[in-house]
Amino acid sequence: MMELEEWLRLYQALSTTAGVKERGYWTIAGIFLLANCLLIFPLSLFLFSYKAWEGRFFTTVLAGIGVLVCLGWSLSQRRAVQELNHASGLLRSIEGQFAGGDFHRSLYKLLAGEEVCIPSTSWKCKEWHPKVTHLGPVTRLLPHASISVLPVVFLLAWVALAIVSWIF
User: Fold this and answer.
1) Which helix (H) or strand (E) holds 46?
2) Does residue 100 sit in helix, strand or coil?
3) Element (H, E) at 132
4) How many other β-carbons are positioned within 10 Å of the β-carbon of residue 73?
5) Looking at residues 47-73, what average pLDDT do you find?
6) DSSP per-residue letters across 3-30
7) Buried b (16+ CB within 10 A) or exposed e, 136-162
8) Are 151 and 32 in contact (CB under 8 A)?
9) CB–CB of 129/122 below 8 Å?
10) How confident is the model at residue 120 (pLDDT cuts 50, 70, 90)?
11) Cβ atoms of 165 and 55 closer than 8 Å
12) pLDDT for 2
């Protein structure tokens, strides 16, 4: 059986890893969102600088690059979610080895919409009571859902742009 110090080092390493994975997930979203926005700048220059025939080719090339960026975004974000879920699952399972340790498991329950006791207390009926809190479905699901839908929205916009540039 492992000693307490070894468990604590393992827990600290997994906690750091889970934090890095979460930060990586949001960094990927920010970088690819910025990449898509940067592609819009040359697109606006091509639309106003070139004639219709030349502009079609440039627009199609930029739309193709945009599609590739969106596919890369979607694939890398899916991988980041899998890594994050794996690290968080390991962290919750390690937490089961500690008596009374319920840090990441309570966060997992909170993000799942269950009620959890938070460490602070409130004064009710002339006594201190632990606060119970939960997140509503919109608060829980909106950030990840919006970031998950964004690559699809940009992908559809780039495809539509490529098609529209040849129709009109």
Assistant:
1) helix 4-49
2) coil
3) strand 127-133
4) 23
5) 85
6) -HHHHHHHHHHHHHHHHHHHHHHHHHHH
7) eeeeeeeeeeebeebbeebbebbeebb
8) yes
9) yes
10) low
11) yes
12) 67
